[in-house]
Amino acid sequence: MISYWKCKDGFREIHQWKSGCWVKVSNPTAEELAVLKERFAVPDFTHDAEDIEERPRVDHENNWMLVFIRIPNRSLDEDGETMFTTAPMAVLIRDDVFITVNYFENEVLDDFISWSQRRHLNSCKGYDLLLSLMLSTSVWYLKYLKQMNTMMSAAEERLEQKMDNDELMRTMGLSKFLIYFITSLKGNMTVLARLKKRLRTLPHDEDLFEDVEIETQQALDTASIYNDILERQQETYSSVIGNNLNRIMKTLTVVTILLMIPTVVAGYYGMNVPNGLETRWVGFPLAVIISLLLMAIGYVFIRHSKFFK
Description:
7 helices, 309 residues, 7-stranded mixed beta sheet
């Protein structure tokens, strides 16, 4: 779908393209891409924008500046669990033409439009619009990171009560999401570094550019901190599981050793050789008493043995 947005008291949708407006393209069809190519002579970028693994970068082609950034996305899986991913968004700029192309659902663009209307923006186009979108992207990274932190805290509380495989898998999933965010934010930082060199001689809001750098770096630092915390938690859980397994194995070893004692006594008593007790009634009770006595001695010895501490 192709829509046109003009910044006047916030971004408002208009019916046709006007100079300096924002051409917002969402999940375009082949016919819509043909319209873009015919009207604006945009370069062929379809396959790059559709690739979910497309990396952030800055290119130039036929007087167009092509900027690919990665934006965060939240969705639900088949089990209703929250998933966080990142997806590429293409931005094409040439003279008074500004186009964004997005093949994947996200909350960033619609929220940015609502924010511009609340702030009653009257001027935002060209490179300033690119920077504003990148700033909004970084803000949404921080919002999703806060949600991840809440999920991490909830999972930690549940794991403290009971070590459950489902909860451990959730923490592994959060770790994967954080890696996605860190990788994407590093790519966006690289894009900012390249834009900083290219925009030196072009009109843009330097304060806005600085805000984008600060917010993106903050999101990257936050994601890295959460990832470090989650790694420490996973190491702690692994240690706890290992300690619990060691305790179980020690208990099983003690039980096995103690059960071997009556087996040995019964083996001697049941040998097919004369022992003076085979014809007397006291033989079986005596074997039981000797077994219990030896088991008690063995338990006391094991309890005070350093080997089993």
